[in-house]
UniProtKB/TrEMBL annotation:
Similarity field: Belongs to the NtaA/SnaA/DszA monooxygenase family.
Residues the record lists as binding FMN: 97, 151, 222
Domain (Luciferase-like): residue spans on this chain: 25-390
NCBIfam families per UniProt: FMN_nitrolo
Protein name, entry field: FMN-dependent oxidoreductase (Nitrilotriacetate monooxygenase family)
Keyword Oxidoreductase belongs to the record: yes
MF annotations from Gene Ontology: monooxygenase activity; oxidoreductase activity, acting on paired donors, with incorporation or reduction of molecular oxygen
Source species: Actinoplanes lutulentus
Annotated keywords: Flavoprotein, FMN, Monooxygenase, Oxidoreductase
Pfam families tied to this protein: Bac_luciferase
Entry-linked Gene3D superfamilies: Luciferase-like domain (3.20.20.30)
KW Coiled coil (keyword) present: no
Length: 451
């Protein structure tokens, strides 16, 4: 019996807090004008995407004590933007990246439950953590949280938020036919949570939302992150792997750890470049890539691992012949530390560069790029579909080099091909984000207080 065809999950991320956007393009839009977000979200909904996703930037990044001149300034608050988008979309999920280190469960649970109500059940939360003292300086908590405690806090944060969302049952507010008024169960919203990170109690003010709970996403592929992802935490996890073999290994690992069929969903970030011929697409991809990662940008990306000034090294020359500085304070402030063991990472990169004859810039493009689909619309549809059907992922979070109109090309030229082969919906199946992702609705019972 043949394996049933998987339905591809598609999210759209709007580039802006990384090196993916080509700001020099004359068609590049503002990162704070609402028209930018409206265009991108409505295009994604036209393409029957599952959700629209916003990353988070809590601090202006610095290099050697000065704001990096090629970085993004003025990125607004994600939940506020998504609340506005709820009014101009009907089916698209709305997912905000929010840091569990620098927020509080009651406040964030209330904001997300409100967004879920206002959107009719389309809210989601991408939970991230931080041990970055530089970013922490913007908050009362500062940078006190040790790296080893990040997931402890995240797990407790999510448990507390879920208890708050579950403190109202589905039938806690009912209409009284005789009086014409709405009645509430006397203890509706009551909660008490006590743990290492949080000790809170009271009444949650927002009744149970349409999904029961917002959809939870998480990024992180360390052993701790994988355990958190597979242990009932998130509904979906971001995968950073570019090649099918690496992606399949990660997919199998998450499924084995979870033991729950189809959960969590695995969704790598991806980009695309289209051309009328494959040769056209390859040439266009080369031009776009070199515009995304300039020589200066490549130096800065590698400085995050070398932790030293690399401006004296030719971007089109060999890798720096110096070792990373593991003793100095962070040379780049405000970027997430993806590579924890700098000497080991640099050794691996040297092997990659030597094997492929990469320059400094070419290595930066290789190691900091996303899963890329380059070719004609038919080739991109074929490769994307094959990746999912081969269990490299359950779908992709698609971005473009051009904000906000870059996604239009994918929607107009690739989406119809995926729909023709039965791998992508032609209409939305349900009314909530959980419906469209194939996740169970969380309904019904009040969670007992954890004391």
């Amino acid at each position: 019996m043949s394996k049933p065809r998987k339905q591809i999950i598609l999210g759209h991320y709007l580039g802006g807090v990384n090196h993916s956007t080509v700001w020099s393009d004359p068609d590049a839009g503002s990162q704070i004008d609402f028209a930018t977000f409206r265009h991108a979200a409505q295009a994604a909904e036209r393409g029957k995407f599952d959700f629209f996703f916003l990353a988070e930037g809590l601090a202006l990044r610095e290099r050697q004590g000065e704001i990096f001149d090629q970085d993004v300034i003025g990125r607004p608050d994600a939940i506020t933007v998504l609340t506005a988008l709820a009014a101009v979309t009907e089916h698209l999920g709305l997912i905000a990246t929010v840091n569990a280190t620098f927020n509080e469960p009651y406040e964030l649970a209330r904001q997300l439950a409100t967004l879920d109500h206002l959107s009719g059940g389309r809210a989601g939360w991408n939970i991230v953590t931080s041990s970055d003292a530089f970013t922490g300086g913007n908050f009362r908590r500062g940078g006190f949280l040790d790296r080893a405690d990040r997931y402890t806090r995240a797990e407790e944060f999510l448990a507390a938020a879920r208890q708050l969302w579950d403190s109202w049952a589905d039938d806690d507010i009912v209409a009284d036919k005789e009086s014409g008024q709405f009645l509430r169960r006397p203890d509706a919203g009551s909660f008490a949570f006590s743990g290492r990170q949080f000790d809170i109690s009271g009444r949650f003010t927002v009744p149970r939302s349409p999904q029961g709970q917002p959809v939870i996403l998480q990024a992180g592929v360390s052993s701790e992150g994988r355990e958190f992802a597979a242990g009932g935490g998130p509904d979906a996890i971001f995968s950073p792997y570019h090649t099918l073999a690496e992606a399949q290994a990660f997919y199998r690992d998450i499924r084995q750890r979870s033991g729950v069929p189809g959960r969590p969903k695995v969704l790598p970030g991806a980009s695309f470049v289209l051309g009328d011929t494959e040769a056209d697409a390859i040439e266009r991809h080369r031009e776009i890539t070199y515009a995304q990662i300039s020589g200066r940008g490549a130096q800065v990306l590698l400085e995050t691992v070398w932790n030293r000034d690399l401006s004296a090294f030719d971007p089109d020359g060999p890798l720096p012949d110096v070792d990373p500085d593991t003793e100095a304070p962070p040379f780049i402030q405000g970027r997430a530390r993806i590579h924890q063991n700098a000497p080991e990472t640099v050794a691996q990169w040297r092997e990659i560069a030597e094997a492929n004859k990469y320059t400094l810039r070419e290595l930066a493009i290789h190691v900091f790029g996303r899963t890329e689909f380059v070719g004609t619309p038919t080739q991109v549809a074929d490769r994307l579909d094959a990746f999912v059907q081969s269990d490299g992922s359950d779908g992709f979070i698609i971005g473009s080099h051009l904000t906000p109109a870059g996604i239009d090309e994918f929607v107009d030229r690739v989406v119809p091909l995926l729909q023709e082969r039965g791998s992508l919906r032609t209409e939305y199946e349900g009314t909530t984000l959980r419906d469209n992702l194939g996740l169970p609705a969380l309904t019904g019972q009040v969670t007992p207080a954890r004391v």
